[in-house]
Amino acid sequence: MSFVKRAGLYVIRHKIKSLILLLVLTIIATFVLTGIAVQSSAKDAAKDVRGSVSGKIKLEIDMSPKNMKQGENTGYGNSYVYAGDIISKEMLAELMKIQGVIDFNTESISFGGSGVDFKYIPPGGFAFEGELAMMNVTLFSEKCSSFMNGNLTLKEGRHIVDTDNHVIMISNELAEYNNLSLGDTMTIYSPDARRNVSFKIVGIFTGTEGLGNNAITASQIPSNQGIIDYNSMIDEFGDDFSRGYDYINLYVEDPINIQNVYNEVANHSMIKGKTLNLSIDSEQYDVIANPLESMQSLVRTLIIIISVISVVILTLLLTIWTRGRIKETGILMSIGKNKSEIVGQFVLEAVFIAVVAFGLSFPLSSLISEKSGEFIMAQVVDSQNLSDNDSQINNGSFSSSDFDMLSKPSANNSITEINVSVTLNYLIWVYSIGILLTVCAVLLASYTIIRLKPREILSKYE
After folding, report:
1. How far is Cα 150 from Cα 171, in angstroms, rounded to an integer?
2. Residue ranges per domain, the chain?
3. What is the rounded CA–CA span in Å between residue 374 and residue 248?
4. Maximum distance among all alpha carbons in the chain?
């Protein structure tokens, strides 16, 4: 009788042992298959995030004291002005040629004034004459952090672009409060420019609803704070803005390569040695991607731990069973069956059961993988400490310079669940790895007996 036939008959005749081993292997394979599916789904989700969220490299002028010089006496003391290098349009054009840099933008709170032909929403229902609010100034409103992270959403109209001049985007609340619509003109008195400045409404956004409930002044209500184009600042303040930018965000296509792009920018001839600071800003990407990357690492570790524990359990289980077959092994060796044939029988017995167990694990892991992915992701997100205090918008008061609070990455925009599906490709991996581990466990369990001679085996049995 061949060892293959003996292996098959042994599995059939020893039903209890076979069922126990089948159950153990099915549970192990289900855990491993689920882990592989969850890890792969997290990896795919992270790849999608990399394609939808760009990293940022921030280039800004160095305002440290060494780069400041004394200006005119204002009557209240000496003033100081920046005397270092600037970020010129020519410099920006060269940086845009670097591979991996796909876009740029600048945004800052640098224009404020009181409403002339409209009224700001009053705090607590109490309006004060001549109240001011600050405006966010930008080249491309669509690239403003508050829009990119989803805190603000365009409701009507379009975004501001770098060719616009004297246009504005306002909140839906401010538009409704003043019965304003697209195409209407708003006039703001600027104390700095000392004149009225008119803007055409090109866009209306949402996302500031319910914010600033504890505001004391109109400037602390985000709904009052609009967005205007950069060219308006050049028209109103001339050389202060036309000579260049205080800072620029360079958007990198793939956040994973942001360090390489950063190095190229830092070593560029137009940047190196200048009084400019360069920094990596991947906060928005990190808020979304970190839970996924942590999840991949966690699941990878779990798969390794499960695999190691599985080998240990299988080895112990098979060792107990193999020692119970001492007489059978001795008889087979005494009638001329070589050790490799006997070990081959033991291996085939386990493999026969493993093949069935791994097949059963496929539907089981399909049932539990989605819930497992959601559970693990929930644990990872909790460990990231994505609390409202750190990443969500404060519903309290806002200062006139805090419109950029809306640019903070929101925890609501982080990925808190993923879609997990078990495919046949994963099952092939489980079969490959699982059978290999099973064979290793059988070999380890068989070694203590197979190394003995037939007479030694029979004498131990007696």
Report:
1. 14
2. 3-49+288-461, 54-282
3. 38
4. 113
CA atoms within 13 A on the CB side of 202: 18
SS (H, E, C) 389-401: HHHCCCCCCCCCC
State both tokens at 433.
């790895």
pTM across the whole model: 0.60
Alpha carbons 80 and 77: distance in angstroms, whole number: 10
- pLDDT digits 0-9 by tens, 414-427: 555 566 777 788 88
pLDDT in tens, 225-266: 899 999 988 888 776 666 778 889 998 887 778 888 889 999
Report the 3 state secondary structure along the chain: CCHHHHHHHHHHHCHHHHHHHHHHHHHHHHHHHHHHHHHHHHHHHHHHHHHHCCEEEEEEECCCHHHEEEEEECCCCEEEEECCCCECHHHHHHHCCCCCEEEEECEEEEEEEEECCCCCCCHHHCCCCCCEEEEEEECCHHHCHHHHCCCCEEEEECCCCCCCCCEEEEEHHHHHHCCCCCCCEEEEEECCCCEEEEEEEEEEEECCCCCCCCCCCHHHCHHHCCEEEHHHHHHHHCHHHHCCECEEEEEECCHHHHHHHHHHHHCCCCCCCCCEEEEEECHHHHHHHHHHHHHHHHHHHHHHHHHHHHHHHHHHHHHHHHHCCHHHHHHHHHCCCCHHHHHHHHHHHHHHHHHHHHHHHHHHHHHHHHHHHHHHHHHHHHHCCCCHHHHCCCCCCCCCCCHHHHHCCCHHHCCCCCCCCCCHHHHHHHHHHHHHHHHHHHHHHHHHHHCCCHHHHHHHHC
